[in-house]
Amino acid sequence: MTDMTASAAGASSPNATLLLILKARTFIALILVFVFFSIFAPNFLSAANMVIMSKHVALNAFLAIGMTFVIVSGGIDLSVGSIVGLCGMVAGYLLLNGIDIGLGWSIQFNTLEICLMVALVGIAIGALNGFLITKLNVAPFIATLGTLYIARGAAMLSSDGKTFPNLSGNEEYGSQSYRMIGSGDFLGVPISIWMLIAVGVLAAYIARRTPLGRFIYAVGGNERAAGLSGVKVTQVKYFVYMFSGFCAALVGIIISSQLVAAHPATGDTFELNAIAAAVLGGTSMSGGRGRIGGTIVGAFVIGVLSDGLVMMGVSAFWQTVIKGLVIIAAVVIDQAQQKVQAKVALQAQAALGK
């Protein structure tokens, strides 16, 4: 390396260091909030609270993983919270009533069959979002806002706004194990966490190791260029919304299992936490950039922040304000990262040119 190149590289050192800090911002934020609440929130580090908090984090992480794919592709999904509520109601209805086929007869289902049917409901709503966006050219914000209301209304209609209680299942039909999904554990770890690990690994594999993952990033980076290069943009968009709907269905199953009840208002504003976790984890709202691992860490930040504020007795209204500030801060920092990254790239090119 020449003296002039070394000088240029040295000039870029402060920006390079700042870039590393910005890229690690989610981990830094997690460490800071964890240390803060460990000091100021009573019993924050207790084993019981860690288990409860991990379950809360898992719910947000499921939605955030699906949301990451959607945002990376250049879209947004506002319907996931309502899908959670509707899928929980579908599960409750099937557990309590089965499917009436007339003449006093009904078809009853076991736990696996109920979970599969509920998952199909979430996927179907995701497919509807994909259809509205790709075939009818409805903007993602408007399309998913519409399905948000449709899913929430359907959840209300399923029970006239009432709760489906006592979802303990029926041993005769093989559905008694349903409640274990949300409250059971394996090797001392909640089943919902094992489910999150499986979905997280699958999503990370798709994103980093498959052509589909590369296509998702390509569509979000430049949809027109991706289409011209042979990427099937329509199929990619269908996939990301269907996957997001599937993740929301899992959350609906887990919550109704944990509570042993289903309420049509479940999942209200969950989409905001999912977006916050994805953005905090480094997913760019302009599309084309984001990591599943970062999103999961972002979900932990949101989860620790929410539970810690509750344990400190902070008002629910202030909690909402703080979450809003976190989202804004995450977007501002993301934009700062892009600017610093551009400077580092220019300085590196200048150094090589010399």
TrEMBL record:
Keywords: Cell inner membrane, Cell membrane, Membrane, Transmembrane, Transmembrane helix, Transport
CDD domains: TM_PBP1_transp_AraH_like
Entry's Gene Ontology cellular component terms: plasma membrane
GO MF, one example: transmembrane transporter activity
Membrane topology of the entry: Multi-pass membrane protein
Main location: membrane
Transmembrane segments: 27-45, 57-76, 82-99, 111-132, 186-207, 238-261, 292-310
Cellular compartment(s): Cell membrane
InterPro entries: ABC_transp_permease
Name listed for the protein in its UniProt record: Ribose ABC transport system, permease protein RbsC
Native organism: Mameliella alba
